[in-house]
Design brief:
- With 376 residues, this protein is of the alpha/beta class.
- It has two domains: 263 residues, Queuine tRNA-ribosyltransferase-like (TIM Barrel); 89 residues, no CATH class.
- It is built from 15 helices and 16 strands.
- Helix 7 runs parallel beside helix 8, helix 10 packs antiparallel against helix 15 and helix 13 packs across helix 14.
- The termini are far apart.
Length: 376
Amino acid sequence: MTERFSFTLAATSGKARTGVISTPRGEIRTPAFMPVGTAATVKAMLPESVRATGADILLGNTYHLMLRPTAERIAALGGLHRFMNWERPILTDSGGFQVMSLAELRKLTEEGVTFRSHVDGSRHMLSPERSMEIQKLLGSDIVMCFDECPALPAPRERIAESMRLSMRWAARSKDAFGDRPGHALFGIQQGGLERDFREESAEALKAIGFDGYAVGGLAVGEGQEAMFGCLDHAPDMLPEDKPRYLMGVGKPDDIVGAVARGIDMMDCVLPSRSGRTGQAFTRRGVVNIKNARHADDPRPLDEACTCPACSGYSRAYLHHVFRTGEIISSMLLTWHNLHYYQELMQAMREAIAADRFAAFEADFHAARAEGDIEPL
């Protein structure tokens, strides 16, 4: 165990990278996918079950936790790790994205954002300083600086104004974060799809200096082609010796494409949310278990998968419990999806270490192109 935060790059294959982030709470193998524990829980999963899928780190949401049960209450109860029974690393977002997307009656100023809670209408203020205070109370291992993330598409003038405000907030976040050995602060690159703004943002962040760098402001409505177009250059603007985190991504093909472009970390609610709505991710693409074709099918979701849903239950059973609204449906399908995502990350790490990522990527897309197995 290390007492400090560090990143070691072990191998590359094209732009794809594999390495290890070391923290006092354990190592994070990269590329890494972080399941999202919005309200101090990955929905339908026990913490030990999440760990069993291969996850090294979880993400917690500052906005949701500051509203319920409050960061102060979590701190009084021993911090977020103890509160949710997850002793490995946790990354917390800054709260900025949720304020912009969920809160009511927002008012944005240079100081920060005032808003009314979407839960009960109570009034709150989030600033760089308050976001750092909340994340310190939570005790997260990786802290994100406070930023603004406009939805795309947006006029260039709006993107430039937002990016420059986020850079000023990044500097204030760094000052407020202070010296916290063992904890890391990540800066967030903004600039929409504009290459010159992405470069300006990266230069500003490097001048401030962070333990890691995120590519923010993507997966907000621009589409995969535009996102990949930005990722063709945006990660290259960030330091090679620091982790690169793509926020809020995504579908399996998004993840593979992002890793191919130099991304080390990702998070998304998709595997857990899809599990609760009857969608399962497999090597052959997405299976909609609610479809009637599965009602009499004794085969597993994926014959090569070793998760509990595939090793112990048939498509027919999973179809039945989903259609009848049984809780076990969300549990099994979420476990399967998280297991699939973590297997995908492990396969990419191995392919990069062997310098065969291009071949892996071709095989990945070929398997998905075959589609699901034929109905019986």
